[in-house]
Design a protein that fits this description.
Elements lengths: L6 E5 L4 H12 L4 E6 L4 H10 L4 E6 L5 H15 L4 E4 L9 H23 L8 E6 L12 H17 L2 H7 L1 E8 L2 E2 L7 E3 L2 E4 L8 E2 H14 L5 E5 L2 E5 L12
The structure holds nicotinamide-adenine-dinucleotide.
Length: 255
């Protein structure tokens, strides 16, 4: 999808990867940008507005674990921008000591963000269709022994995104879905590797970073531009690569 002149909304838009994605989308000519996040970050919002004075940039407070707040966010964004072309979810936590919270935010939060996005973007519901990109993780496609709960939620996001990113849904919604799988990226999230109920490894996770958030956000937008429904993009060590999973099964899928 060509981003120029489009309307985009980024959930988790004040986080490391989310904010870099906002910058990258605006650099590519996005004209309306909505940011959903837990809290408004006035400094970051102002910086975007100063750097991209022609764009219409707005914030909505959205806790991804609260369906009513997701609804309000979309309602507000559609009232302001008329329609949404691109929706990015970049919401997540590492919290191995609290797997319920990890599932609630990473997996259920992303799922509900996607379901409400379909309500507001689907051509079957009066929208224009478009593209949804879910930031999963490299640990959505490979094991991650240090953070097993996190890894499970990220595998869940890839399964969710690939299932929604099928012709079955595209035919009626006009929305394409893509999975983004970053490797270790310099953001505040990396500070939260503190052991778990199944390991007590203390990792200096900051040392694991292989790329900046800015590089990740730039490549993420390049993945969106490929406009390929159901695709999976690994973004690691400053490089992007499409992941094509093996075809394990070709029987009936029930669709
Ligand atoms: N940093 C990495 O190495 C890395 C690697 C792979 C995937 N990711 C994923 O990238 C995404 C962004 O993470 P990041 O690295 O930028 O970290 P970050 O901590 O900077 O950003 C996380 C964002 O999620 C938001 N968030 C948390 N709970 C929320 C909730 N309940 N409702 C709404 N928003 C909520 C935060 O406010 C923040 O904006 C996450 O899904 C993360 O799992 C990060």
């Amino acid at each position: 999808m060509d981003c120029s002149g489009k309307t985009a909304v980024v959930a988790g838009g004040f986080g490391g990867i989310g904010y870099a994605t906002c910058n990258s989308l605006l650099s590519k000519g996005v004209k309306n940008l909505g940011i959903f996040d837990l809290f408004e970050n006035g400094d970051l919002l102002q910086k975007l507005k100063s750097n991209f004075p022609k764009a219409n940039i707005k914030f909505w407070k959205v806790d991804a674990t609260k369906k009513s707040e997701i609804e309000n966010g979309f309602k507000g964004a559609v009232a302001e921008f008329k329609s949404i072309d691109i929706f990015v979810t970049s919401v997540g936590v590492v919290d191995e000591m609290n797997p319920e919270r990890c599932v609630q935010i990473n997996l259920l939060g992303t799922m509900n963000l996607n379901y409400v996005a379909i309500d507001y973007m689907s051509v079957a519901k009066g929208g224009k269709g478009g593209l949804v990109a879910n930031v999963a993780s490299l640990s959505g496609i490979v094991p991650f022994p240090l953070c097993v709960a996190y890894c499970a939620t990220k595998h869940g996001i890839v399964g969710l995104t690939r299932s929604l990113g099928s012709d079955f849904y595209l035919k009626t919604t006009g929305i394409k879905f893509v999975s983004i799988c970053p490797g270790f990226t310099e953001t505040p999230l990396l500070g939260n590797f503190a052991g778990s109920p199944v390991n007590s490894v203390k990792t200096d996770s900051a040392k694991l970073a292989q790329q900046t958030a800015e590089t990740c956000g730039k490549l993420l937008v390049e993945a969106l531009e490929k406009d390929k429904n159901g695709s999976i993009w690994m973004i690691d060590a400053g490089k992007m690569k499409e992941i094509i999973p093996p075809e394990y099964y070709s029987g009936p899928t029930g669709t």
